[in-house]
Amino acid sequence: MMQHGAVLRAAGEVDRFPVVLVEVGGLAEQHLFIACVYSSKTGVWGNLTSTSVQSKGTFTLYFKGMPSVLVGNSLYWLFDGDFVGIVEFNLERHSLAVIEVPLDMFERYSGFTLMRAEDGELSLLSLSGFTAQLWKRNTITDGVPSWGIVRTVELDKLLSLDSEGYVTTHGFAEDNNLVILRVNINIISTVQIESLQFKKVSDNSKWYYYPFESVYAADYATSSFP
Predict the structure, then answer these.
(1) Which of the chain's termini has less CB crowding within 10 Å, N or C?
(2) Would you say the pTM of this structure is higher than 0.90?
(3) pLDDT attached to residue 69
(4) Neighbour-count burial for 95-122, b at 16+ CB within 10 Å, e otherwise
(5) Nearest Cα to Cα of residue 50 among 64, 38, 35
(6) How far is 179 from 120, CA to CA, in rounded Å?
Protein backbone atom coordinates (compact mmCIF):
# COMPACT_ATOMS: atom_id res chain seq x y z
CA MET A 1 0.00 0.00 0.00
CA MET A 2 1.26 3.49 -0.90
CA GLN A 3 0.26 6.34 1.40
CA HIS A 4 -0.12 10.11 1.20
CA GLY A 5 -1.86 12.68 3.33
CA ALA A 6 -2.65 16.27 4.21
CA VAL A 7 -3.07 18.39 7.34
CA LEU A 8 -5.66 21.18 7.17
CA ARG A 9 -6.30 24.18 9.39
CA ALA A 10 -9.35 26.41 9.08
CA ALA A 11 -9.00 30.18 9.46
CA GLY A 12 -9.02 31.10 13.14
CA GLU A 13 -8.47 27.51 14.29
CA VAL A 14 -4.99 27.39 15.82
CA ASP A 15 -5.14 24.22 17.91
CA ARG A 16 -7.66 22.13 15.95
CA PHE A 17 -6.95 20.48 12.65
CA PRO A 18 -8.04 17.45 10.62
CA VAL A 19 -5.59 15.00 9.07
CA VAL A 20 -6.58 13.21 5.86
CA LEU A 21 -4.74 9.96 5.05
CA VAL A 22 -5.12 8.20 1.70
CA GLU A 23 -3.76 4.82 0.57
CA VAL A 24 -3.72 2.95 -2.73
CA GLY A 25 -3.06 -0.73 -3.25
CA GLY A 26 -3.08 -3.10 -6.22
CA LEU A 27 -5.33 -6.14 -6.42
CA ALA A 28 -5.65 -8.75 -9.16
CA GLU A 29 -8.18 -6.84 -11.23
CA GLN A 30 -8.52 -3.43 -9.61
CA HIS A 31 -6.83 -0.67 -7.64
CA LEU A 32 -8.33 0.21 -4.27
CA PHE A 33 -8.16 3.73 -2.80
CA ILE A 34 -8.86 4.15 0.92
CA ALA A 35 -9.17 7.38 2.93
CA CYS A 36 -9.65 8.20 6.59
CA VAL A 37 -9.88 11.49 8.53
CA TYR A 38 -8.40 12.14 11.97
CA SER A 39 -9.85 14.93 14.15
CA SER A 40 -7.50 16.65 16.59
CA LYS A 41 -10.61 17.89 18.44
CA THR A 42 -11.83 14.39 19.33
CA GLY A 43 -8.55 12.51 18.94
CA VAL A 44 -10.38 9.86 16.92
CA TRP A 45 -10.01 8.49 13.40
CA GLY A 46 -13.24 8.44 11.39
CA ASN A 47 -14.72 5.70 9.23
CA LEU A 48 -12.84 4.37 6.22
CA THR A 49 -13.94 5.56 2.79
CA SER A 50 -12.99 3.67 -0.36
CA THR A 51 -13.34 3.51 -4.11
CA SER A 52 -11.80 1.28 -6.77
CA VAL A 53 -10.78 1.52 -10.41
CA GLN A 54 -10.10 -1.16 -12.99
CA SER A 55 -6.49 -2.31 -13.34
CA LYS A 56 -4.84 -1.87 -16.73
CA GLY A 57 -2.13 -4.49 -16.54
CA THR A 58 0.67 -3.75 -14.08
CA PHE A 59 -1.36 -3.78 -10.84
CA THR A 60 0.82 -0.94 -9.50
CA LEU A 61 -0.06 2.64 -8.61
CA TYR A 62 1.93 5.09 -6.54
CA PHE A 63 1.47 8.67 -5.42
CA LYS A 64 3.71 11.30 -6.97
CA GLY A 65 6.13 12.94 -4.55
CA MET A 66 4.13 16.16 -4.42
CA PRO A 67 1.72 17.56 -1.83
CA SER A 68 -2.03 17.58 -2.30
CA VAL A 69 -3.87 20.62 -3.63
CA LEU A 70 -7.00 22.02 -1.98
CA VAL A 71 -9.59 23.20 -4.52
CA GLY A 72 -12.99 24.18 -3.17
CA ASN A 73 -14.10 21.50 -0.73
CA SER A 74 -11.85 18.77 -2.12
CA LEU A 75 -8.26 17.59 -1.79
CA TYR A 76 -6.51 16.23 -4.87
CA TRP A 77 -3.45 13.98 -5.21
CA LEU A 78 -1.64 13.00 -8.41
CA PHE A 79 -0.72 9.34 -8.92
CA ASP A 80 1.19 7.36 -11.56
CA GLY A 81 1.99 3.77 -12.49
CA ASP A 82 -0.58 1.56 -14.19
CA PHE A 83 -2.08 4.80 -15.49
CA VAL A 84 -1.84 8.49 -14.62
CA GLY A 85 -4.68 10.04 -12.70
CA ILE A 86 -5.94 12.17 -9.83
CA VAL A 87 -7.69 11.00 -6.68
CA GLU A 88 -10.20 13.41 -5.14
CA PHE A 89 -11.33 13.41 -1.51
CA ASN A 90 -14.42 15.53 -0.80
CA LEU A 91 -14.07 17.03 2.67
CA GLU A 92 -17.82 17.56 3.15
CA ARG A 93 -19.11 14.18 1.95
CA HIS A 94 -15.97 12.21 2.92
CA SER A 95 -16.10 10.52 -0.47
CA LEU A 96 -13.39 9.44 -2.93
CA ALA A 97 -13.34 9.71 -6.72
CA VAL A 98 -10.70 8.99 -9.37
CA ILE A 99 -10.11 11.32 -12.33
CA GLU A 100 -8.09 9.89 -15.20
CA VAL A 101 -5.62 12.01 -17.14
CA PRO A 102 -6.05 11.40 -20.90
CA LEU A 103 -3.46 8.98 -22.28
CA ASP A 104 -2.30 11.35 -25.03
CA MET A 105 -1.44 13.95 -22.38
CA PHE A 106 0.69 11.40 -20.53
CA GLU A 107 2.51 10.28 -23.69
CA ARG A 108 3.34 13.81 -24.86
CA TYR A 109 4.44 15.41 -21.60
CA SER A 110 7.24 14.56 -19.20
CA GLY A 111 5.78 15.98 -15.99
CA PHE A 112 2.57 17.11 -14.34
CA THR A 113 1.80 19.29 -11.34
CA LEU A 114 -1.64 19.71 -9.81
CA MET A 115 -2.62 23.28 -9.12
CA ARG A 116 -5.52 25.66 -8.61
CA ALA A 117 -6.36 27.87 -11.59
CA GLU A 118 -7.00 31.62 -11.40
CA ASP A 119 -10.76 31.02 -11.26
CA GLY A 120 -10.37 28.57 -8.38
CA GLU A 121 -10.91 25.42 -10.45
CA LEU A 122 -8.71 22.32 -10.60
CA SER A 123 -5.99 22.47 -13.23
CA LEU A 124 -2.84 20.67 -14.35
CA LEU A 125 0.51 22.13 -15.35
CA SER A 126 2.22 19.90 -17.92
CA LEU A 127 5.85 20.16 -18.96
CA SER A 128 7.47 19.07 -22.22
CA GLY A 129 11.02 20.30 -22.70
CA PHE A 130 10.88 24.04 -22.04
CA THR A 131 7.16 24.33 -22.80
CA ALA A 132 4.73 24.50 -19.87
CA GLN A 133 1.00 24.29 -20.53
CA LEU A 134 -1.88 24.92 -18.14
CA TRP A 135 -4.81 22.54 -18.55
CA LYS A 136 -8.31 22.91 -17.13
CA ARG A 137 -10.90 20.22 -16.61
CA ASN A 138 -14.11 20.95 -18.47
CA THR A 139 -17.46 19.21 -18.88
CA ILE A 140 -18.75 18.86 -22.43
CA THR A 141 -22.38 18.57 -23.49
CA ASP A 142 -22.76 14.82 -22.97
CA GLY A 143 -21.44 15.12 -19.43
CA VAL A 144 -18.08 13.46 -20.09
CA PRO A 145 -15.21 15.48 -18.53
CA SER A 146 -12.39 16.61 -20.78
CA TRP A 147 -9.18 18.62 -20.46
CA GLY A 148 -8.24 21.67 -22.51
CA ILE A 149 -5.17 23.92 -22.74
CA VAL A 150 -5.80 27.46 -21.49
CA ARG A 151 -2.25 28.83 -21.38
CA THR A 152 1.21 28.09 -22.79
CA VAL A 153 4.50 29.43 -21.37
CA GLU A 154 7.93 29.07 -22.98
CA LEU A 155 10.16 28.64 -19.93
CA ASP A 156 13.47 28.91 -21.79
CA LYS A 157 12.57 32.49 -22.72
CA LEU A 158 11.25 33.30 -19.25
CA LEU A 159 14.29 31.83 -17.48
CA SER A 160 16.91 32.62 -20.16
CA LEU A 161 17.97 28.98 -20.56
CA ASP A 162 20.33 27.66 -23.21
CA SER A 163 19.53 24.67 -25.41
CA GLU A 164 21.31 22.23 -23.09
CA GLY A 165 19.34 23.22 -19.99
CA TYR A 166 16.26 21.49 -18.65
CA VAL A 167 13.36 22.12 -16.28
CA THR A 168 11.33 19.79 -14.04
CA THR A 169 8.35 20.54 -11.80
CA HIS A 170 8.52 19.83 -8.06
CA GLY A 171 5.21 21.02 -6.69
CA PHE A 172 2.83 23.89 -6.16
CA ALA A 173 2.41 26.40 -3.30
CA GLU A 174 -1.33 26.97 -3.51
CA ASP A 175 -1.75 30.06 -1.31
CA ASN A 176 0.44 32.15 -3.60
CA ASN A 177 -0.03 30.24 -6.89
CA LEU A 178 3.68 29.46 -7.15
CA VAL A 179 5.04 26.56 -9.17
CA ILE A 180 8.31 25.12 -7.84
CA LEU A 181 10.78 24.29 -10.60
CA ARG A 182 14.17 22.62 -10.75
CA VAL A 183 16.29 24.37 -13.37
CA ASN A 184 19.22 22.29 -14.66
CA ILE A 185 20.83 20.17 -11.94
CA ASN A 186 20.84 22.36 -8.86
CA ILE A 187 18.73 25.52 -9.10
CA ILE A 188 15.33 25.66 -7.41
CA SER A 189 13.09 28.48 -8.61
CA THR A 190 9.49 29.60 -8.37
CA VAL A 191 7.20 31.04 -11.03
CA GLN A 192 4.04 32.97 -10.12
CA ILE A 193 1.37 31.75 -12.52
CA GLU A 194 -0.61 34.94 -13.12
CA SER A 195 2.28 37.41 -13.35
CA LEU A 196 4.92 34.93 -14.61
CA GLN A 197 7.38 36.44 -12.13
CA PHE A 198 10.44 34.25 -11.69
CA LYS A 199 12.45 33.97 -8.46
CA LYS A 200 15.54 31.90 -7.68
CA VAL A 201 15.17 30.19 -4.30
CA SER A 202 18.21 27.93 -3.93
CA ASP A 203 21.21 26.62 -5.84
CA ASN A 204 22.17 23.51 -3.86
CA SER A 205 21.96 19.89 -4.99
CA LYS A 206 19.18 18.64 -2.69
CA TRP A 207 16.73 16.44 -4.53
CA TYR A 208 13.48 16.78 -2.57
CA TYR A 209 11.58 19.95 -1.72
CA TYR A 210 8.21 20.43 -0.07
CA PRO A 211 6.32 23.73 -0.45
CA PHE A 212 5.29 24.90 3.02
CA GLU A 213 3.33 28.08 3.67
CA SER A 214 3.14 29.07 7.32
CA VAL A 215 0.96 31.39 9.38
CA TYR A 216 1.75 33.46 12.45
CA ALA A 217 0.02 35.88 14.81
CA ALA A 218 0.64 39.51 13.83
CA ASP A 219 0.98 40.70 17.43
CA TYR A 220 3.56 37.99 18.18
CA ALA A 221 5.60 38.87 15.11
CA THR A 222 5.51 42.57 15.99
CA SER A 223 6.64 42.00 19.56
CA SER A 224 9.32 39.44 18.69
CA PHE A 225 11.11 41.22 15.88
CA PRO A 226 12.34 44.81 15.53
Answers:
(1) C
(2) no
(3) 85
(4) ebebeebeeebbeebeebbbbbbeeeeb
(5) 35
(6) 16
